[in-house]
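User: quick one
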Amino acid sequence: MDKTINQKAWFLVLPVFLVVAFSAILPLMTVVNYSMQDTFGNNQFFWNGVGWFKELLDPSTDLGGRFLASLGRNLLFSAIILAIEVPLGIVVALSMPRQGWTVAACLVILALPLLIPWNVVGTIWQIFGRPDIGLLGYTLNSLGIDYNYVSNEFDAWATVIVMDVWHWTSLVALLCYAGLKSIPDAYYQAAQIDGASRWAVFKAIQLPKMNRVLLIAVLLRFMDSFMIYTEPFVVTGGGPGNSTTFVSIELVKIALGQFDLGKAAALSLVYNLIILIVCWIFYTVMTNAGTERPEKQGVK
Amino acid sequence: MNTIPGRRIIMVVFLIFLLLPIYWLVNMSFKTNTEIVTTMTLWPHQPTLENYKRIFTDESWYSGYINSLTYVLINTVISIAVALPAAYGFSRYRFLGDKHLFFWLLSNRMAPAAVYALPFFNLYSAINLFDTPWAVALAHCIFNVPLAVWILEGFVSGVPREIDETAFLDGYSFPRFFIKILVPLIASGIGVAAFFCFMFSWVELLLARTLTSVNAKPISAIMTRTVSAAGMDWGLLAAAGVLTIIPGALVIWFVRNYIARGFALGRV
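Assistant: Done. Structure below.
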């Protein structure tokens, strides 16, 4: 469908532009302003130029060391949860019942973790994993596995990752399920006539059809895990030590904990820039995938 | 639909994995604190409603639910209202900077809340909205409005353009066409978008907590109180947690038939 050029459409998008600009551009200006200044309290500010940015990107300083360490942890975390959630989500979507009331029941249960407030997700896992009162912690310890997410770094990581898998795999699964549902039966019948194996059906029919939704899923999951704050904060508080301190947790510590406005602002800008770049890459890939698709498939 | 071997077992195991932690929370909310701390019981042996009673009778507790629901509803209404015309604009027309604008909107959906916590605090204090539901509702617009535009754009694009043209030939004015014809056609899309706005506003804590202090405190912020109290009140915390799951569960139940399509954001 060709779109007509009509500059008056700006009037239609103007309300959205104003609302989002009010919430995005004004505060961002404050951040840029702060990032160039230093303060000794009492609302007295001094010009600091690009000083904070230099410090931020230099691992030998305190600020730079903390930022780069948390960035590294965060990237590792995002990589791990994507590696688990995407394949698992696909498997779960393929395992959905075909028809009947069980479909609705499965969908409702799958969607449930997505609507639990993030701090309650943290609370649930905090309780569930405790060695004294939690089912998981208690069971593991009585099986002879020494599990304590408060003092052991590995256990803390495992808990945060399992929690994220619990929380978000459903999103990937529901997206994939929606993609699978859109495949016409004729495709499967054709595959059956050709005597295609299950794996061939998956590779040649199901995976290409899920392409687009999978891209959305990876984008959403990467972004949300890259800015994760509440859940690990409630469960581990960023500990033990700094082992689960991700970028957002570090940022809130600096901004609202120490009130180091200059440092926090500089960190915010670099953080935002990374997200903007990744988002742009995904956006480009996604729009390209959208335009290429009809040509590849021929008729539709 | 083609499926994989052992699918029933996979599904059942996964659903148990999802439900077990929630069951544990529900289980604890019906226990007394003595039972929680002293014994390990798989179900409450002395079931009690004491925890729930405390939440429903103490205003500082139940006002939190009212505050949360207030800003969630305000946010949903604002988001949908401004996103509808924009979705139509993006879907039907080309205009100067449309792609850049769409990308900019989308990038705001991805912006980390932690970046905005402090500037929002300054901004809403300056315009005297701090500690009101409006502050939180407007702050949540930064990720909900772009999301609503994105979803609705998909649904509007599904409406054939001939319908617009016929309506305009029939003498419908633009506002009348919009309300009388377009909105009913994409009603399920609006439902899906509202569901997502509700969801993301309901689960967010960082901004909601930063922008409120006393009067508009959301339930999720009040829950952290039990942590600092002398000795942890696990039962109460669990009961409060269970009550925050219920609105979400109700909303899911209402939209259960649209979930699959909704999660694909209307563009499969």
